[in-house]
């Protein structure tokens, strides 16, 4: 008899996006003529940059020839990609990394979920709420979240990010061992100014807290004063792991590639208090459970660091950020309270009259045929909010606004 991991049974099956899909499908059946506009799921819509496609075509040709064919690649990723990452993403910001600190992966979801493998089950976990649901769910699966009481897990310290604190977390009153931060934030679109990020790094240094920093949206930052990497803060190498992804920045949601930085001076602790290198643990974990991202994909990712590739991804990001600007301006003109959208592809709106998020979702769908994401799907702190994404086409953004202006 195979006993299951009962922690999985604690998760509800109503994962946010399947639930939205179900509701939208039901609407389409009863309203076959309605043209549904989706400003919901966080997926890109523009095609891959030309430079990436060319590099991948070339890599396919290499794979079709015995002399240039490649099998298993190096454990942490090909040096050509790791070097390009360090040279373009870190060195210009005054951050020194060595090649052994960068781990190429198949996207940030895998590593933000899997990182828990190298951490004990009874650490207490702090989460800036609301946020990307993977952090909480992966901790539930590991048995680290405790029990669900009401809408909160007993072992998770929720650090509320609301309009009152400008969607930036304040230091918690309870001890935490691990802290998840995601900036620019999904779903609020908020960013963390340098002095606030410094406050968190200093707090982590003083209290032996491990920070898991998700910077999947760093390329969307427009304001030159906002840090792109946590390692821009002195001392962060001793306390933080950073996750990055090519998904939103270069259209890689279907191609799958990202990377994780685990500095060599970052330590965890054994029960007897000895320091343990997290870089070594992660390396060992990956060697056992992960066999790398394909050569073709890594060649594609490398191409975004060429001058043409960099220009092409900038054009796509500018396109999405123009959508964000148009949507934010329009919604604000409708009298809505809208946040985010300046340094992230997400708009975070207070629902009218603090209506519950799901109720607003249904009303919006049935009265305008527009799909967004209920804020509460990102954690209890998201109740009373609603997320719109800027990842659609300009035409969709324009038409959505027209409908919303009439509706409000
Ligand atoms: C989309 C997203 C990711 C990553 O996705 P991958 O496609 O797995 O790289 C990671 N973190 C956040 C906050 C995201 O929104």
- Overall mean confidence score, pLDDT: 97
Shape: globular
End-to-end Cα distance: 57 Å
Q: Order of strands across the widest beta sheet? A: 2-10-9-8-7-3-6
Could you say which structural class the secondary elements and strand pairing correspond to?
Answer: alpha/beta
- Poorly predicted runs are none
Gyration radius (Cα, Å) is: 21 Å
Hetero groups:
pyridoxal-5'-phosphate
Structure description:
This protein has 408 residues and is an alpha/beta fold. The protein has helices at 16-30, 50-63, 79-90, 108-114, 134-141, 194-207, 247-250, 278-289, 295-303, 307-333, 357-368, 394-407; strands at 37-38, 102-105, 125-129, 148-149, 152-153, 156-160, 178-182, 210-214, 240-245, 258-261, 267-269, 275-277, 338-340, 346-350, 370-371, 373-374, 385-389. Strands 2-10-9-8-7-3-6 form a seven-stranded mixed β-sheet, sandwiched between helices. It has a four-stranded antiparallel β-sheet with strand order 13-14-17-16. It has a two-stranded parallel ribbon with strand order 1-15. The longest helix is centred in the last third of the chain and has 27 residues, at 307-333. The termini are far apart. The relative contact order is 0.17. The chain binds pyridoxal-5'-phosphate. Pyridoxal-5'-phosphate binds next to helix 4 and helix 7.
Secondary-structure blueprint of this entry?
Layout: H1 16-30, E1 37-38, H2 50-63, H3 79-90, E2 102-105, H4 108-114, E3 125-129, H5 134-141, E4 148-149, E5 152-153, E6 156-160, E7 178-182, H6 194-207, E8 210-214, E9 240-245, H7 247-250, E10 258-261, E11 267-269, E12 275-277, H8 278-289, H9 295-303, H10 307-333, E13 338-340, E14 346-350, H11 357-368, E15 370-371, E16 373-374, E17 385-389, H12 394-407
Parallel strand pairs: 1-15, 3-6, 3-7, 7-8, 8-9
Antiparallel strand pairs: 2-10, 4-5, 9-10, 11-12, 13-14, 14-17, 16-17
Helix pairs in contact: 2-9, 3-9, 4-5, 10-12
Pyridoxal-5'-phosphate binds next to helix 4 and helix 7.
């Amino acid at each position: 008899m195979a006993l299951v991991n009962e922690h999985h049974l604690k998760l509800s099956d109503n994962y946010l996006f399947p639930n939205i899909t179900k509701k939208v499908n039901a609407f389409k059946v009863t309203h076959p003529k309605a043209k549904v506009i989706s400003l919901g799921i966080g997926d890109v819509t523009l095609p891959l940059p030309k430079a990436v496609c060319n590099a991948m075509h070339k890599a396919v040709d290499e794979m079709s020839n015995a002399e240039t064919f490649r099998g298993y690649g190096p454990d942490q990723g090909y040096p050509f990609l790791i070097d390009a990452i360090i040279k373009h993403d870190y060195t210009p910001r005054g951050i020194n990394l060595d090649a052994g600190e960068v781990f190429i992966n198949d996207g940030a979801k895998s590593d933000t979920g899997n990182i828990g493998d190298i951490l004990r089950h009874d650490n207490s976990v702090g989460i800036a709420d609301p946020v990307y649901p993977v952090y909480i769910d992966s901790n539930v699966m590991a048995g680290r979240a405790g029990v669900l009481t009401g809408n909160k897990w007993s072992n998770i310290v929720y650090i509320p990010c609301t309009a009152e604190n400008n969607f930036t977390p304040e230091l918690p009153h309870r001890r935490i061992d691990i802290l998840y931060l995601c900036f620019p934030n999904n779903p609020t679109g908020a960013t963390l100014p340098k002095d606030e990020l410094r406050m968190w790094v200093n707090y982590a240094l003083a209290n032996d807290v491990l920070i898991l920093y998700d910077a999947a949206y760093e390329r969307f930052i427009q304001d030159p004063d906002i840090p792109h990497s946590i390692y821009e803060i002195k001392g962060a190498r001793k306390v933080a792991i950073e996750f990055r992804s090519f998904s939103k920045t270069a259209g890689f949601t279907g191609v799958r590639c990202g990377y994780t930085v685990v500095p060599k001076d970052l330590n965890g602790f054994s029960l007897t208090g000895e320091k343990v290198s997290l870089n070594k643990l992660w390396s060992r974990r990956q060697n056992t459970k992960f066999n790398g991202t394909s050569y073709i994909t890594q060649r594609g990712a490398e191409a975004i660091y060429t001058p043409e590739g960099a220009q092409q991804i900038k054009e796509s990001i500018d396109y999405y950020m123009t959508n964000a600007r148009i949507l934010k301006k329009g919604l604000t003109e409708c009298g809505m309270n809208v946040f985010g959208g300046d340094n992230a592809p997400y708009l975070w709106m207070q629902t009218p009259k603090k209506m519950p998020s799901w109720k607003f979702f249904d009303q919006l769908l049935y009265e305008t045929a527009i799909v967004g994401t209920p804020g509460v799907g990102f954690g209890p702190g998201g109740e009373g909010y609603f997320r719109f994404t800027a990842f659609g086409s300009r035409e969709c953004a324009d038409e959505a606004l027209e409908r919303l202006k009439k509706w409000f």
